[in-house]
Amino acid sequence: MGEKKHPSGTPSCCCCPEPSVIYQQHSHRHLCSTHFIRDVEERVVQGIENNAMIRPKDRIAVALSGGKDSTALLLLLAHQLKRWRDVSLVAVTVDEGIEGYRNETIKAAGQVAEKVGVEHHIISFQDLFGDSLDILLKGREEQACTVCGILRKKALSEAAKKNGATKIATGHNLDDEAQSVLMNVLRGDLMRLVRDSAADTSDCFLPRIKPLAEIPEKEIASYLFIKGMFLLLPECPYTRFALRGDVRSVLSGLEHRNPGTMLRLMESKKTIGKYLAGSSVSDPLRRCRQCGDPCSGDTCQVCRLRQSLGR
Ligand code: SF4
Ligand code: ZN
After folding, report:
1. Is the pLDDT of residue 44 over 90?
2. Ligand 1: which atom is nearest the Cα of residue 65?
3. For the chain, the helix, strand and coil percentages under 3-state DSSP, each to the nearest 5
4. C or N: which end of the chain has fewer Cβ atoms within 10 Å?
């Protein structure tokens, strides 16, 4: 059957006579802006409900970098908040101290938090670890994303706890999640693959939730664009060292030629997680000998990293 055409010549929305603004590859549907926004919001809410991510009385710290994923996450949670009883939000931004990049995204984060009326707090590497990321990385720039990722996780936990949060919500989208699965498999890191599968735990004190984990990156960008909230921001100068780049381009090529690849990868992760739960690769978390934070070995990643950085 041929697709319906709007008088303008573009395909019509599958739910109404309006012209479509997006073709959703995974559902094979054309959608207008109203139905697309509704569809994204419903899928996010459904994902939250199905995975019991939010419970009554939760105070959720939204990790708000100011980039598109975290902006979409905050908008969405703030708009849908009345669905959940006695749940509150607080936005937390980590200032790693990256010259020529972070200042602009912090400004954008402040604006979006103000727009949706959510309290906003900033925590910096300088205050927490004594130096900015730029200084910590001198001479080891190629390790930027590893160092940044470990310290940012710790900073987020600290800020969330300080602000009375019961959970941390991050803006990881389907592309990010699928890339992580593939990276863990390629590294042979089944332990992390299993650990990431456990919805409510990670190597931090507070449970983490990822409400956008089933939404493709392209749809998040379109969501913000339609809402008039899409901003072009500078890119982190260390992106060029990110290993993720190769995996990203392989996966997006595969997704383009075989729509649904990323969703199927996420299904595989769940299945592997189920089979390996309780086996020796999914050892329970222990406590770090130095700081007491939960970790998988004797010493947590942050303490090991601080030692290797001579701090
Ligand atoms: Fe940190 Fe790497 Fe992301 Fe830059 S690209 S913010 S260094 S994780
Ligand atoms: Zn429509």
Report:
1. yes
2. 6
3. 50, 10, 35
4. N
| Nearest alpha carbon, ligand 1 atom 6 | 236
Question: Which ligand is closest to the CA of 6, given by its number?
Answer: 2
Which residue of 101, 238, 247 sits with most ligand 1 atoms within 8 Å of its CB, as the best mutation to test the pocket?
238
- Ligand 1 mean position, distance from CA 148 (Å): 6
Residues 6+ apart with CB under 8 A from 189: none
Query: Higher-confidence residue: 276 or 141?
Result: 141
Ordered DSSP codes for 23-37: EETTTTEEE-HHHHH
From the CA of 95, which ligand is nearest?
1
**Per-residue tokens: 104:** 């602009």
Q: Residue 273 pLDDT more than 90?
A: no
Lowest mean pLDDT among 93-107, 128-142, 223-237, 269-283: 269-283
Q: Is 198 a residue whose pLDDT tops 70? A: no
With a 6 Å cutoff on the Cβ, whether 148 touches ligand 1 is: yes
Query: Ligand 1 pocket, 240 CB below 6 A?
Result: no
Q: Which of 236, 247, 248, 305 to mutate to test the pocket of ligand 1 (most atoms within 8 A of CB)?
A: 236
> Which of 31-40, 250-259, 276-285 ranks highest by mean pLDDT?
31-40
Query: CB within 8 A of 118, min separation 6: which ones?
Result: 62, 74, 78, 89, 90, 91
- Span of 26-30, 52-56, 67-71, 91-95 with lowest mean pLDDT: 26-30
Pairing of strands 22-24, 29-31: antiparallel
DSSP state of 11: B
User: For residue 190, what is the enclosing H or E element?
Assistant: helix 190-197
Mutate to test the pocket of ligand 1, among 145, 153, 243 (most ligand atoms within 8 A of CB): 145
CA–CA separation, 84 and 177 (whole Å)? 26
Could you tell me the pTM of the whole model?
A: 0.90
pLDDT class of 282 with cuts at 50, 70, 90 = low
